[in-house]
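lol ok so funny story. i was supposed to be doing the assay writeup but got distracted and ended up predicting the structure for this chain instead. priorities right. anyway since i did it might as well share w the group, maybe its usefull for someone
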Amino acid sequence: MITTQSTVAVSNSASSITVSLESVGVFTGICVSISVLGTLAVKLINNLNNISSSITQIKQDLKEHADNKEKIRDLDKKLDLHIQDYINRKDTVTLLIAQVSQTVDHRTNRLYTSMKDIETYLQLQGNFKIREFQDLRKMEEENPFNKL
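and the output, tada:
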């Protein structure tokens, strides 16, 4: 078996460099490996930067959502106050309407009783003839406007 060894330059001086195909292959392998490692390092750094910017964006979004949560809580409190105010006003109006209705009913009953007393007194006098009196309470029950 014969082995060949190539030499690039040979000099008789004390410092000489001998380059073989094997050393060129090793050097090329080292350069390719370094470039691959560099490319992987760049990709890794880009991925880390993307992750970092995503985390920063998520933090900003969370702060914004926290602010929105506070605004929603404030609006909810205001809405609860308005609802309670509406309920209180509705109850007040309902009580006032009931009070007016009771007052009207009471006065109507007093008037009806007074008219009956006057009828009775005039009948006892004997010289006054009373016509038929239409009872307002019966009139409300019959609801004469539905007859039209």
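The first helix runs from residue 21 to 125. The helical segments are 21-125, 136-142.
back to the writeup now i swear
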